[in-house]
């Protein structure tokens, strides 16, 4: 009897997670649509929604009475008051955001850095920011966890940053440091892998089961893979390090770094140098590139586009994605001439795996990594919404 009770409770917990995940990932929807999507009966869905509402994870509201005849079903939406803290350390800044379960960005700050922060300094800064928010922007909100998107190799098993070369972090227990500083449950992942997850759920790769995502930031180029609808991390969680590949460069005149990796040639720092800028966030860099009339800037953009196109053609041949999403400054390179860049990739790729391929800039813009980090923090909640949080 006890085993049966545990089995029934286990099924209920899974169903609670399924309903919460549905409204979180696909947005507010009616009970009727939840019933159709889950295959559960109406009374079961009503019970599950009531339990989630009592826990403060969803809210129900009346539907628009003008949209349909008959008795419309109540609308269920993820709570705006349940949030995850998202962290993205970079070489030039620390970004921290508070992302609601509903998807709303409740708070965000970017603190510029004139030197590299240590893992310990990063954890202390995050704790300071979160503590300030608790008394203001997040007063009365439930913080369920913290996700960190780190530009480096992150061990999947325990969130240890094995190597973040541009930050000069090595074998850093970042998850442990953040937990000790904030008291929150912490998930740590590679920034580009988390960005890929965000774009697949909510952005430019939504609806695509096979996607390649490359992120271009101040720390270089990272990547993430979605194959058959599943994020691919590899044996240790290190898959997707596109920036460390040696690119094929047909014209030696295009080479700037002898025996350099892709991120040495296709580089945010080189774009800033061409523009005469020391640093800039993504919107500022994009605006500067769009406004520039300098021939030197145009030449550098075209050089980087040529090299990036050959690298992406290799990804097309090996992985046969239906979409390639480019975040950060890589998306800006595409925006300079989207049709021309598409043609350049196809010129180097086999025609069969390139059929149906689309290449897009990231749709979530500067929020992509923070949203990805928040998704990592939300994962335990979505798996078991009513579980007691760890001490």
From TrEMBL:
Q: Could you read off the lineage of the organism from its UniProt record?
A: Bacteria, Bacillati, Actinomycetota, Actinomycetes, Micrococcales
| Family that this chain belongs to | Belongs to the ROK (NagC/XylR) family.
List residues of the HTH iclR-type domain: 18-60
From the Swiss-Prot or TrEMBL record, give the protein name.
ROK family transcriptional regulator
């Amino acid at each position: 009897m006890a085993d049966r009770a545990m089995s029934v409770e286990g099924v209920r917990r899974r169903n609670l997670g399924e309903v919460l995940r549905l409204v979180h990932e696909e947005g507010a929807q009616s009970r009727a649509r939840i019933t159709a999507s889950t295959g559960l009966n109406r009374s079961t869905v009503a019970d599950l929604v009531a339990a989630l509402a009592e826990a403060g994870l969803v809210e129900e509201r009346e539907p628009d009475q003008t949209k349909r005849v008959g008795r419309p079903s109540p609308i269920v939406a993820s709570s705006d008051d349940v949030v995850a803290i998202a962290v993205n350390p970079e070489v030039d800044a620390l970004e921290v955001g508070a992302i609601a379960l509903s998807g709303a960005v409740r708070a965000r700050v970017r603190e510029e850095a004139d030197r590299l922060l240590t893992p310990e300094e990063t954890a202390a800064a995050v704790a300071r920011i979160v503590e300030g928010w608790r008394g203001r922007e997040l007063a009365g909100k439930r913080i369920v966890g913290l996700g960190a998107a780190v530009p480096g190799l992150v061990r999947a098993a325990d969130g240890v940053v094995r190597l973040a070369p541009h930050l000069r972090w090595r074998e850093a227990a970042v998850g442990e440091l953040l937990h000790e500083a904030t008291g929150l449950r912490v998930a740590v992942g590679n920034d580009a892998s988390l960005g890929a997850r965000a774009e697949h759920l909510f952005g430019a790769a939504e609806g695509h089961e096979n996607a390649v995502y490359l992120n271009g930031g101040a720390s270089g180029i990272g990547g993430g893979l979605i194959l058959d609808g599943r994020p691919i991390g590899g044996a240790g969680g290190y898959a997707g390090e596109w920036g460390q590949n040696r690119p094929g460069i047909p014209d030696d005149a295009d080479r700037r770094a002898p025996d350099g990796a892709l991120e040495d040639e296709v580089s945010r720092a080189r774009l800033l140098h061409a523009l005469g800028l020391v640093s800039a966030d993504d919107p500022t860099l994009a605006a500067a590139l769009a406004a520039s009339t300098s021939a030197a800037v145009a030449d550098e953009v075209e050089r980087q586009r040529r090299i990036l196109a050959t690298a992406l053609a290799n990804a097309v041949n090996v992985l046969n994605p239906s979409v390639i999403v480019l975040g950060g400054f890589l998306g800006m390179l595409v925006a300079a001439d989207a049709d021309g860049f598409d043609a350049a990739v196809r010129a180097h790729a086999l025609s069969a795996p390139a059929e149906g391929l689309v290449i897009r800039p990231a749709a979530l813009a500067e929020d992509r990594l923070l949203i990805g980090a928040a998704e990592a923090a939300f994962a335990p909640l979505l798996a078991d919404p009513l579980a007691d949080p760890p001490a």
